[in-house]
Amino acid sequence: MSNYFTDLMNQALAKGLEAYKIQDARNWFSTQTNNVRRVQPRVVLQKSNNNLTNITYIGKMYMFIYDPATKQTLPYFDRFPLIFPFQKVPNGFYGINLHYLPYLLRAKLMDSLYQTINNDKMDETTRLKINYGILNRAAKFKYFKPCVKHYLNNQVKSRFLYVDPKQWETALFLPLERFEGASKTQVWKDSKRKIGI
Q1: Interstrand relation of 61-63 and 77-78 (parallel, antiparallel or unpaired)
Q2: Of the four listed, 25, 45, 58, 67, which is most buried by Cβ atoms within 10 Å?
């Protein structure tokens, strides 16, 4: 089970990543019938009303619309983060935004994060047991560094879409990143450089 997400990614690559994305995106977002690239964040949020919340919990997965206060000075940013919050701070929180990694590295990071899971139920009680100290000390989490982002509560422009643990693998591979200031290719290249690969 320790390489579950990497194995899943390799299977996706073997049968064609685009086909994999489209098939699983259709299953998860049943209202979408064609190309997953056309899925817009607001549509995802609107169609997932039952899973919307105003509260986040450490170690659970969420998506939301974000407008950074410092966007004028950032080289790039993601308007639709896919995160695991790991630390609450005044006026916001820190989270791991998986969109900052290309798909295979997302899978490798997720395999490591999965080892911190608090139970095997994969239900609303399931969460990752993570904090910055744990992430920073363990070599197996090396891919997390370019993903750590500080989010301000007043810059969150939507409710949070809670991603059920049974859907983590689907969310991991959906191309819902919305980078501004650079292409995802450039962002991922920079992330690899920060990791040292």
Answers
A1: unpaired
A2: 25
Rounded Cα distance, 52 and 63, in Å: 9
CA distance 20 to 53: 28
Q: What share of the chain is helix, strand, coil (3-state, %, to 5)?
A: 45, 20, 35
- Report the C-alpha gap between 127 and 57 in whole angstroms: 9
pLDDT in tens, 167-197: 898 888 888 899 999 999 999 999 999 999 9
DSSP annotation string for 26-72? HHHSTT--S-GGG--HHHHHHHTGGGEES---TT-EEE--B--TTTT
Mean pLDDT (whole number) for 70-78: 96
Residue 143 one-letter amino acid: Y
